[in-house]
Amino acid sequence: MQTHLLELLICPRCLPAEVSLNADILAERNGDIVTGSLCCPQCGSRYPIVEGIALLDPQTTEGERAANKYETEEVVSSYLWSHFSDLLGEEQASQAYATWAGMMAPQPGVALDAGGAVGRFTFEMSARCDFAIGIDTSQAFIRAARRLMRERSLTVALKDEGLLRREVTIRLPDTWQSDRVEFMVANALALPFRQKSIALFSSLNLVDKVPAPLSHLCEMNRVTRNEGAQFLLSDPFSWSIEAAPMAAWLGGTAEGRFAGKGLANVAALLADGGGELAPAWQVGTTGKVWWTIRTHSNHYELIRSCYLHATR
To answer: How many CA atoms, within 13 angstroms, populate the side-chain half-sphere of residue 46?
Structure first.
């Protein structure tokens, strides 16, 4: 983790209080903390830094992380394909990430990609702002993203059929700048960043996967600036009780505060100057884009993700 980010970080366990973290650095290389920990002087929490990765998720234990399906090599390779397949010229590749990136106007400040998985959108944002941070609860995803950051290329063994694999090599375009990105393990429901410190915030295919969708949006709103900010949300709104209780859904029901479609309800929340996401956002572009997940050579999932871009 890069040392200059320390001034942005706070203890996610102490929220809504903003308590700075103290760095206990055991190994550092060229401004990158390789091994050490971040310590909270108020609650006593210690967040390890392992192989350069800061583990700042207060809601996941080591045992839970080890059991997470997103920690497996097969799932990591599947997500790497989903994020970067258009760079590989794959026949079934999606143009979703390029479409999303095209909606974000360049501007000064820090970008935060919540639930950024293996890093595609974070890299895209490095060409549009001063610095971009990608977070995810999966340590395996963040490890892959940081390897791409350091080495600029990554050879991936994609599942072909059964035990058969084929190798592809992802190479990052020159316009994506490794010195302007960082990746860390963190939780979208308890962001370890100071209020009003983020200029561009993205939440791609995440809001229907967290147990408290409105809390995720409130955290987004807490860390984004009151002026000169952009927010991009895209989601298939595949509400399920496995991810969140029905009472927490932001759409997909016929009754209640969030009856109707998720995209319209999120837009209304953003535009409400007296609500949870005040001050009001101006919702601009909305639309839909197809996003592809690959399991193996004969199995793909085509998902329609509904997006909106908002500014204030």
So the answer is: 8
Over residues 193-252, the pLDDT tens digits come to 999 999 999 999 999 999 999 999 999 999 999 999 999 999 999 999 999 999 999 999
Q: If DSSP codes are grouped into helix, strand and coil, which group holds residue 18?
A: coil
pLDDT confidence band for 63 (50 / 70 / 90): low
pLDDT in tens, 254-293: 999 999 999 999 999 999 999 999 999 999 999 999 999 9
Distance CA 97, CA 257 (A): 31
The two tokens of residue 46 are: 């210690």
Among candidate residues 68, 70, 92, the one with its CA nearest the CA of residue 168: 92
Pick the closest to residue 208 from 261, 276, 157, 275 (CA basis): 261
**pLDDT by residue (tens digit) across 201-216?**
999 999 999 999 999 9
Q: Write the CA distances from 156 to 69, 78, 94, 133, 166, integer angstroms.
A: 18, 9, 18, 23, 8
Residue 151 and residue 16: Cα distance in Å, rounded? Answer: 37
Neighbour-count burial of 246, counting CB atoms closer than 10 A to its CB (0-12 exposed, 13-18 middle, 19+ buried): exposed
SS3 64: helix
Residue (of 200, 6, 8) closest to 103 by Cα position: 200
48 close to 55: Cβ distance less than 8 angstroms: yes
